Amino acid sequence: MTISYFTSISRDEEFEKSSDSIIPLFSLTYALAINFSIISCLRLDCVRNKVWVATFGVLSAGMAVLSSFGLLLYCGMPFAMTVATAPFLILGIGVDDMFIMISCWQQTQVHDNVEDRMAATYKDAAVSITITTLTDALAFYIGLLTPFGSVQSFCMYTGTAVLFCYLYNITFFGAFLALNGSREKGNRHWLTCMKVPEPEENSKKYNLCCVGGAYDHETGKEEPMPINNFFKMYYGPFLTNTWTKVFVILLYAGYLGSSIYGCFQIQEGIDLKNLAADSSYVGSYYDNEDQYFSEYGPNVMVVVTDSKFQYWDKTARERLDTCLERFESLTLDGRSLVAKNMILSWLNEYVKSGQVSNPNNKTIFMDSLPAFLQLSDFTQDVNISKQVIIASRMFIQTINVSTAVDEKNMLNKLRETANGCSEKLVVYHPAFIYFDQYAVIVSNTIQNIVVATLAMLVISLMLIPNPICSLWVTFAIASVIVGVAGFMALWDVNLDSVSMINLVICIGFSVDFSAHISYAFVSSKEVTANKKAVDAVYHLGYPIIQGAVSTILGVVVLSAAESYIFRTFFKIMFLVILFGAVHGIVFIPVFLTFFGICGGKVSDKKDDGRSNTLSQSGHRWVTQTTGDFNMKNTHELRAVAANSKVWSISSNQSSHYSSHCVNGKANSVYENIEDCP
Question: With 50 as the cut, is the pLDDT of residue 611 above it?
Answer without folding.
Answer: no
